[in-house]
Write a structure and sequence with these properties.
GO terms for molecular function: flavin adenine dinucleotide binding; hypotaurine monooxygenase activity; N,N-dimethylaniline monooxygenase activity; NADP binding; trimethylamine monooxygenase activity. By secondary structure, the protein is an alpha/beta fold. Helices cover 33% and strands 16% of the residues. The protein folds into two domains: 309 residues, FAD/NAD(P)-binding domain (3-Layer(bba) Sandwich); 175 residues, FAD/NAD(P)-binding domain, CATH 3.50.50.60.
């Protein structure tokens, strides 16, 4: 029986893994190499080796309702797209609310994780750690959850750029980028057109003499703000859209989305059009990049062929002279240096994990990888679902298939990924957000039953089917049920609108009856948690009737 669990890393994946262990009655110990929680989202002015790094202006491209954990909504007054400092504050709220800090050992590096000699009988692991003073300590755990992320080791492929050793200016990886201070009045080449490359090109173009963005394959660029000013993911990341994806050919959706994007800005005209279809790779999410291209501040170029001193030559024969800075936004390598190589199963270009969590070749399922996932959706709810499932497996509530069956499933996943997505050594793993979440939720027993909701709670059914795919849906029933989940779903758009209510025109009621009725209605709704309430219905009806018949109760100055 698993009791003591080691969690490696105190980023969002590590925090939710600690909580999942506590929910299942286990005793977690989280080892964090830095002096604070937050992982990737803890900004530091100087990048530190073997740790994720972000830039000063970074704002997440997933809206707050879609990125928050399932049982703690982000405060309503927080902006929809949050700066990294706000995200870190939310993680602190999460850790404080669920009392996670006492389970974290900061400034403790995990040196190695090895199977115990009696692993075949106990499934236990020996974990060797080193504290800030260099003292090593050995621990024995019944299970281990690895949450060390995959934005830690920068990929700097200098061998692919002949002549880089002759470059007379400064070059660095986007991992080292903190802000545009060193780009003032300079000529800059950004290599790579992922989300980081796009952000750096846009920010640098505001101060640089000229920014050039080099891309090998191009990219589809989408906006964060869509129809009626809604966040992109709250508008389109829904169950009904997912159902349509299962019913209609993917090429139809590729054509439809690409046509709409080209209506906003023709990707061919902007030199952005990629070699892949829209749903074959996660797009670049950037509202500013098209305008910076249109204004000439950013010039899109093909792949770099070679570098001659301060001159950069591109594949089409064009060249840019007097280049001062080259930024390599060329992605990241991934790895788990503290794990023995024999533990990891290789499948294609990726680490093969059963349902992207469990190594399929172990005798006992007591090692889990959480947060090692990539989808058009936030990592936080996915990691939370992985952690909830992994801890249920640790406790024996859920049995995994045989090793042979798991390896077969891993190989099938690899074939499906290679068929449906553009994959490479740096981006070997991509999944469909809704399908993956529902798959794990079904194993846990928390997937919402749409048919049951249709007959028993139609207002909730409508919001689950047509509304955004927020993680609250997975707290409505089953293990880990949260009583506040229904209300969280009903009020998710209220929290979206709240930070925008910064200039409201106040209506002054002369009619005391109408004002009192409105206050009574608000109080009743708070008490009944927005469930079907006859009193709510009656007061709403009379409030509307009275207001319609008594427009004179409004001051003329407000009309």
């Amino acid at each position: 029986m698993v009791h003591r669990v080691a969690v490696i890393g105190a980023g969002p994946s590590g925090l939710t893994s600690v909580k999942a262990c506590l929910d299942e009655g286990m005793v977690p110990t989280c080892f964090e190499s830095s002096n604070d929680m937050g992982g990737l989202w803890k900004f530091k002015e100087v990048s530190e080796p073997n740790r994720a790094s972000i830039y000063r202006s970074l704002t997440i491209n997933i809206s707050k309702e879609m990125m928050c954990f399932s049982d703690l909504p982000i405060p309503a007054d927080y902006p929809n797209y949050m700066h990294h400092s706000k995200i870190l504050k939310y993680f602190r709220m999460y850790a404080d609310h669920f009392k996670l800090l006492k389970h974290i050992r900061f400034q403790t590096v995990v040196k190695s994780v090895r199977q115990r000699p009696d692993f075949s009988r106990t499934g236990q692991w020996e974990v060797v750690t080193e504290d800030k003073d260099g003292h090593e300590e050995s621990h024995v755990f019944d299970a281990v959850i690895c949450c060390s992320g995959h934005y830690t080791y920068p990929n700097l492929p200098l061998k692919d750029f002949p002549g880089i050793e002759t470059f007379e200016g400064k070059y660095f990886h986007s991992w080292d980028y903190k802000g545009p201070e060193d780009m003032y009045g300079k000529r800059v080449v950004v290599i790579g057109i992922g989300n980081s490359g796009g952000d750096i090109a846009v920010e640098g173009s505001r101060v640089a003499e000229q920014v050039y963005m080099s891309t090998r394959r191009g990219a589809w660029v989408v906006r964060q703000v869509v129809d009626n000013g809604l966040p992109l993911d709250m508008k389109y990341n829904t169950r009904i859209v997912h159902i349509l994806f299962q019913l209609l050919p993917i090429n139809f959706f590729n054509w439809m989305v690409e046509k709409r994007l080209n209506t906003m800005y023709d990707h061919t005209m902007y030199a952005l059009k990629p070699t892949h279809r829209f749903f074959s790779q996660i797009p670049v999410i950037n509202d500013d990049l098209p305008f910076r291209i249109l204004s000439g501040a950013v010039i899109v170029k093909p792949n770099v062929k070679e570098i001659r001193g301060s001159t950069v030559v591109f594949d089409d024969g064009s060249m840019v002279e007097k280049v001062d800075t080259i930024v390599f936004a060329t992605g990241y390598n991934y790895g788990f240096p503290y794990l023995p190589s024999s533990v990891m199963h290789k499948s294609g270009q990726r680490v093969g994990l059963y349902k992207h969590v469990f190594p399929p070749n172990l005798e006992h399922p007591t090692l889990a990888i959480v947060g090692f996932i990539h989808a058009f959706g936030a990592i936080m709810p996915q990691a939370e679902m992985q952690a909830r499932w992994a801890t249920r497996v640790f406790k024996g509530y859920k049995k995994l298939p045989s090793n042979q069956a798991m390896i077969k499933a891993v190989e099938k996943d690899t074939r499906d990924i290679e068929k449906n997505y553009f994959v490479s050594k740096l981006t070997p793993l991509e999944v469909d957000f809704v399908s993956y979440m529902d798959d794990l939720a079904g194993d846990i027993g928390v997937r919402p039953n749409l048919l049951w909701l249709f007959f028993t709670d139609f207002p909730l059914f409508k919001r689950v089917l047509w509304g955004p795919m927020t993680a609250y849906q997975y707290r409505l029933t089953g293990p880990g049920k949260w009583e506040g989940s229904r209300r969280a779903i009903f009020t998710q758009f209220d929290r979206m609108y709240q930070p925008l209510k910064t200039r409201q025109k106040q209506l002054k009621y002369n009619c005391k009856f109408h004002l009192q009725l409105k206050l009574s209605l608000d109080t009743c709704k708070m008490k009944c948690s927005f469930k079907k309430c006859p009193l709510c219905e009656l007061m709403t009806f009379w409030s509307h009737v009275h207001l319609k018949k008594s427009m004179s109760c409004l001051n003329k100055q407000n009309l």
